[in-house]
Design brief:
- This protein has 312 residues and is mainly alpha-helical.
- The protein folds into two domains: 3-22 and 201-297, Helix-hairpin-Helix base-excision DNA repair enzymes (C-terminal) (Endonuclease Iii, domain 2), CATH 1.10.1670.10; 39-196.
- The protein is 48% helix and 4% strand.
- It has 14 helices and four strands.
- The protein has helices at residues 6-17, 39-51, 75-88, 95-98, 103-110, 120-137, 143-149, 161-164, 177-188, 206-215, 222-229, 236-257, 261-274, 293-297; strands at 3-4, 64-67, 70-73, 218-219.
- The strands form two sheets. A two-stranded antiparallel ribbon has the order 1-4.
- A hairpin with a 2-residue loop joins strand 2 and strand 3 (70-73).
- Helix 1 (6-17) crosses helix 12 and helix 2 runs antiparallel to helix 9.
- The relative contact order is 0.15.
Length: 312
Amino acid sequence: MPSLNHVQIEEVARVVQGMGIEPMNLYDPLYYPESNEPIDRVLMYFIVMVAMDHRLSKYGRVYQVELEGRVYRGADLLYRLGKIRYDKHPDFFEPINLTKIDVNDVIKWLSIGGASPPDPEIRAFLLRDIGEKIIKVFDGDPTNIIRYSSGYLRRDYGYGFIDILKVFRAYQDPVEKKSFLLAKFLSYRGLLKISDPLNKRVPVDNHLTRIAIRLGLIDLENIYREKIVRNEVFTYDEDILIRMSVREAYRYLSDIAKIDPFHLDDFLWSFGRTICVRDKPMCTKCLFKEICPSYRSNLFLNEHRYEDTWYY
């Protein structure tokens, strides 16, 4: 079973501590609704878009296209297409419309040039599920999700925001990647005022997992390391064990460094896309290279292979 390497976590925390991380801009008009948009529409936009935020590049196909004079890739392309749809057809994100979404709707929306989502059937199913449950469980009003939580992520008695989201199939990941990503986005927009900040966690995806493994924040048993080297597919349970260990490592790191876990995620996600990348990590530009066991050994493991999921 993976374990936390507390000594290495403390080493990394000392580097992170003085970085002065700038939170991401959730008002960028290329990707997100403007600040004067109705709250219910903004909520639905983020609930839908985060639900779609998984496994865009898969089976060797990269989700990337040149659009508007620049190259968009992965989540950037997803949210750009989401914002274009929101600007032209904001009713697309309304619960009643989501209940009618089919595969062709998803393909038409999220495909452009040679880029297309790898699982349109699953995405259509997740969107219909959101629409139906917003109507049935929350009386058609997405603001009730926040109202019912009273601003708590977790509650000793009753349900916090993270727990409430589990009613939606898109948000049932045991490691809660999408749930904490949505909480981060909504808190940055001022829509979710978090009453229990100690319950914040980083939303663990493939980038954060890869960084944790390479930096040695978690110790993997040889059986797992060998599976990664052989590029073998991990099981559902193994995926949960590894990602939960990664999440706890970052919780400990953020506590030591006294950094908001959401701000830490902003840095790590960008770092994983630009520096600590899969195939050719940019170690000469890495601020962790002096304490990185992978850099010292010149052995760079990737994240474990687990592709067929809508969790992350």
